[in-house]
Amino acid sequence: MKRIIFLVLMFLAVKSQGLFAWSALQHAAINYIAECNLNPNAKKRIESYLGGRSIVYYAAWMDHIRKTPEYIFSDTWHMDLVDENFKCIENDRYGGLPALEEMIKKLENYTSLDDSTVAVNLKFLIHLLPDLHTPCHVAYTFLRSFNVKYNGVERSYHTVWDGVMLNHANPWGYIEYQRELDRFSSEEKKQIGQGSPRERFEQTARDCVIIYDWAKEGDELGVDFMVKARPLAERQMVIAGYRLAYVLNKLFE
Predict the structure, then answer these.
(1) How is domain 18-252 classified at the architecture level of CATH?
(2) Under a CB-based contact definition with an 8 Å cutoff, are residues 81 and 93 in contact?
(3) Which of 5, 71, 98, 127 could form a disulfide with 62, with the two C-beta atoms 3.0–4.6 Å apart?
(4) Taking a C-beta distance cutoff of 8 angstroms, is the pair 222, 12 a contact?
(5) CA–CA separation, 151 vs 221, rounded Å?
(6) pLDDT computed for residue 168 by the predictor
(7) CB burial class (10 A; 0-12, 13-18, 19+) of residue 31?
């Protein structure tokens, strides 16, 4: 009986990873890459608002609270829509980028805010900015979602990119992700990090639209797909980490 319960729980845990942008592991890895690139003053100030916890600890917080009555308003913040020119279109269904821009604006004057307001906006920011780098968290007006089979299991194409592929590809924890991916020079990191969130999100839209040439409705995806797709997913992770570090350093330096 214990074995059956264990297997059921494991199934549910794996199944739940497809519900969010990146899995909890990828969010932790992105935030750890960012943490390793924070300047000491910013890191100390940020952790003082997070009760002594690191940004890694709260990496998946936004996914955990998105359906609660208090934070249900944030449920539409995990994606954004772009037109055929890859320009963000604000609408009622998706609202991640405008929410992120508003958080950054508030935190530019964080010393004038009470501690709890700073903390909540920080927890949103450190999850939402990485979300907007997930390849399938760009919604295109000229494309539609579809299902595929990956490793013999039918899933949405969105779910494959939300961590399933990387969780199958890498036997890593978040520390290994940082060790293997965080290998750019200081100048390269600075260049990657710069730019407004809107500019960077629209660049993500341009860079990631190619994934819709890699699979179609009903395709059986396996090792060949993973080998082709994994570099893009990992690149988006490390870019998200550097951009998160850049924004946090600028806000809390």
Answers:
(1) Orthogonal Bundle (1.10)
(2) yes
(3) 127
(4) no
(5) 7
(6) 80
(7) buried
Contact 99, 106 (CB under 8 A): no
The ranges assigned to domains in the chain are: 18-252
Tokens 């690191």, residue? 54
pLDDT digits (tens, 9 = 90+) for 177-188: 999 999 999 999
- Spans of the chain below 70 pLDDT: 1-21
pTM score, whole prediction: 0.89
Helices first, then strands: H and E counts in the chain: 12, 6
Contacts of residue 166, defined as CB under 8 A and 6 or more positions apart, other chains included, come to: 23, 25, 26, 230, 233, 234
At a CB cut-off of 8 Å and minimum separation 6, what does 191 contact? none
Q: How far is CA 90 from CA 81, 82, 95, 96, 207, in A?
A: 7, 9, 7, 9, 20
* The pLDDT value given to residue 20: 42
Beta strands in 14-137 (DSSP E): 80-82, 88-89
The H or E element that residue 32 is part of is helix 24-35
The distance of Cα 61 from the centroid of its chain, to the nearest Å, equals 12
Residues written for the chain: 253
Residue 243 DSSP one-character state: H
φ, ψ of residue 170 in degrees (nearest 5): -120, 125
